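Structure ticket #2291
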Amino acid sequence: MSEPTTTPPSRRLQRIALPALLVVALASFLSAVFLPLPWKNKLPPPTETMPPVPEFTLTERFEKPVSKADLTGKVWVASFMFTRCGGPCPRVTATMTRLQGELDLANQSDLRFVTFTMDPERDTPEVLRRYATDRAKAHPEKWLFLTGEEAAMLKLIKDGFLIGVSKSTDPKPGFEFNHSTYLVVVDKQGRIRGHFNGFPGEHDAEGSQYEESLSRLKAKVGDLLKE
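Resolution: structure written out below.
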């Protein structure tokens, strides 16, 4: 009588490990598709009753304090970045520079641009001054660059402006923060009135959604300036 055959240990291990690996791979794929990264989060639903921006007092690049109260009576477009960003921040800044011209910021007395850094440890007023001049070509009075204490800045950006932001575990310089890239329009009473695309995303290769979003931003700003 022949002895019963047994499956070699290596074959048994393969039978156990292969399905497990397939499950892990499937879970990773589904997570990548359905759980977007912070800078790819969905826009908050459009509404005219979005929350007001919380009170804040921060330091402008010319080392002057700027508070929310200083912006009362102004329509403002807010952006969020850090100066040594190796990701999309330069493109968001380029969008703001473009809008500076298209919205005629220099000649709009009731319009301001406000850029918040999420990396105040490195983005000192001096660093922001250089960035504003060299990179953004920013108006010296009507485009503000604000810095402050890191925890307060991140809380303001995340909870106040509804912008996804988190510290990264990536050790490479320029990738210290994950963040979404939306621009936020705020009305004269300090209320959020819309989120708009800061640059064409990876699913908008031709930039049509980006351009449509910027058209809506400019129309919204124009309407709010008339209020």
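Closing remark: Residues 62 and 100 are 19 Å apart (CA to CA).
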